[in-house]
Amino acid sequence: MESTFENFCHENPTVISTVTVGDSNFAIVALLFHVSLYVNPRNTPSGSVTYDDRYCMASPEVAMMAIDQFQAKGEIAYWQKHHNKHLISSGGYIYGPDTPREPKYAIKSCDWDADDLRENFPYRPWLHLAPNA
């Protein structure tokens, strides 16, 4: 199998939505308690998944807001976890791995609060995974 974005989307039934912005392909993928936003995902010839970047987001709505932000400013925002960099966003701050979630331990502040986003844009996976819901 060729390693392409199209094959990734076709082979993964939990892909909720896809968006292309310039040279970047985004896939919003349903997980149990949140969604992943993949940047340039593709299946490898061996069948595993690879990608340029991966973020956890509260819901598909938040992921679409992040893509809009990327289109406007060239960077992804609103994530609760940035997998490639092993960072976590909480309460308007960004933390490294295994650090207490207290502002004095934060790497830096950010323009969003992932906790508020989870509350204001709750994830309802059954709306995306059940086609006749």
Mean pLDDT: 90
Indicate the radius of gyration in whole angstroms: 15 Å
Regarding quaternary structure, what we see is: single chain
Major β-sheet strand ordering: 1-2-3-6-7-8-9-10
Any low-confidence stretches, pLDDT <50, length ≥5?
none
Structural class: alpha+beta
- Domains (count): 1
Distance between the termini: 33 Å
Shape: globular
Tell me the number of strands: 10
How many strands, which pairing sense, and closed or not: the largest β-sheet? 8 strands, antiparallel
Number of discrete helical segments: 4
Q: What is the chain-wise order of helices and strands?
A: HEEEEEEHEEEEHH
Estimate what percentage of residues fall within beta strands. 25-35%
The portion of residues assigned to helices is 10-25%
Sum this structure up briefly.
This protein has 133 residues and is an alpha+beta fold.
List the helices and strands and how they pair.
Blueprint: H1 5-11, E1 15-21, E2 24-30, E3 35-39, E4 42-43, E5 49-50, E6 53-57, H2 60-73, E7 81-82, E8 87-90, E9 93-95, E10 108-109, H3 114-120, H4 125-129
